[in-house]
UniProtKB/TrEMBL annotation:
InterPro entries: GH, Glyco_hydro18_cat. This is GH18 domain-containing protein. Pfam families: Glyco_hydro_18 (PF00704). Signal peptide: none annotated. Residues 1-104 form the GH18 domain.
Length: 104
């Protein structure tokens, strides 16, 4: 994504999707270190654009995938996921989140 090549006049919010989720440690992070460039370009978009992060997607919703339910129960996993998500949001200065979780 190039912030210079993107027209934002008709778009708000814009959702950047998806960071990765480590289902064992319940940690949110970049899929690969090179993604930092994409995140920096994303935040170079004009200030009038509401910038959200989308989390979940295939990691929560593909058949046979239990990442979402595993991270919301038991209580310790849920807390670890929420704490990690808050750190990720703060690190990148996201103010809104879209959770894409269709089940199970």
């Amino acid at each position: 994504m190039s912030s210079r090549a993107s027209s934002t006049s008709l778009a708000s919010p814009i959702v950047l999707a998806f960071p990765t989720i480590d289902p064992t440690a319940c940690q949110v992070g970049l899929i690969n270190p090179g993604d930092e460039v994409i995140y920096k370009q994303f935040f170079a978009l004009p200030d009038n654009v509401s910038k959200w992060i989308g989390i979940g997607g295939f990691e929560f919703s593909d058949p046979g995938t239990t990442t979402g339910s595993d991270m919301t129960s038991p209580k310790d996993s849920c807390k670890a996921f929420i704490d990690s998500l808050k750190q990720f949001l703060n690190k990148w200065n996201f103010r809104r989140i879209d959770i894409d979780w269709n089940g199970p």
